[in-house]
Amino acid sequence: MPFNVLGTGAPLRLWADPATVDERALDQLRNVANLPWVHAVAVMPDVHVGIGATVGSVIAMHGAVSPAAVGVDIGCGMTAQLTSLRAEDLPDDLSRLRSAIEKAVPVGFGMHKHSVDVDHLKTGLRGWHGFWSDFDDLAAPHVLRRKGRAMQQLGTLGGGNHFIEVCLDTEGRVWLMLHSGSRAVGNELAQFHIERAKELPHNMDLPDPNLAVFVTGSPAMEAYRRDLFWAQDYARRNRAVMMALLRDVMLRQFRKVCFETEISCHHNYVAEEVHEGHDVLVTRKGAIRAGAGDLGIIPGSMGASSFVVRGLGSPAALESASHGAGRRMSRAQARKQFKAADLAEQTQGVECRKDSGVVDEIPAAYKDIDEVMAQQSDLVEIVARLKQVVCVKG
User: Fold this and answer.
1) Contact, 162 vs 184, CB < 8 A?
2) Which residues of this protein are catalytic (predicted)?
3) Active site residue 142
4) Which in 18, 269, 295, 334 has the greatest CB count within 10 A?
5) Residues 252-277: pLDDT tens digits?
């Protein structure tokens, strides 16, 4: 059940003990809840400090939206897919499988040498010609010059906390799972519009300039919405292309493998929704939609469990749930405190990178995923618990 945080204009409900939340994050939440456009704020148990708005916050606004409340990786999210394979079908040495995945899907700053032939790749998505035609209407001039790069980055993983995993559930079934977003193009569009919003007169007296909003009906809002929804679609298509490439890898390794329907969800995005009878724009920054019956994915870390969940449709939480475990220390703190040997110890049994280049992703840098799940038991029910055996990171 949520804690109600007092001293705010709009209702602010928190699915974590306020005593355990960084005071800087609480200040950010109060700033958001006191904005005149805000209808309600729901805060997930993985909450931590972000730019302007915390990661792990769901904000419903009347007639306005704050780009910083979406996050700079527009459309970032998860996709998972159950296969017909079982644990005993996997080889004892998984290094060959990991290498095949890394060869098929560029990671980090990498990109494909040529854009992926989506007409022949079984993504299940249509409308590719119209999608790329809409790129030419984006508002940011410097982004328009990088269409070739955006096309070559489609179907690539990126770095940081993004990953591709092969997992086992508690019944020994093999799942594929990945986490990624809209790559450089989404980030550049987000930064462009955040800076644009800061210059608008109605944002001059905000407690944090990063909370600048666009107001419904204005040309700036229409331009942002167009770019935003394009970037969200790019992120969705990026994950679909990667999952198709991953399926091809699995088919080459295990020729008789079959696949169930993909489960996919954004966790940095905007949606037009109705809550408590009000038409609102809802930003989920590090949160998934968890309407009644909605399937979603909540990952842990590269050494912890992840969960496929079904939403319970909590009105108090704006029908939302957490997007993962959430960081308990910054990347800089993690690099200072841990070494590659610590990473190797905490990822025993997982075929993955164990070098200093990814030590900031060490499991100890994240909150306990089981505690996070317990705190939101009224928001989602668990469909499957997954544990990675292969993890690919940039």
Assistant:
1) no
2) 323 (gmp-histidine intermediate)
3) no
4) 269
5) 999 999 999 999 999 999 999 999 99
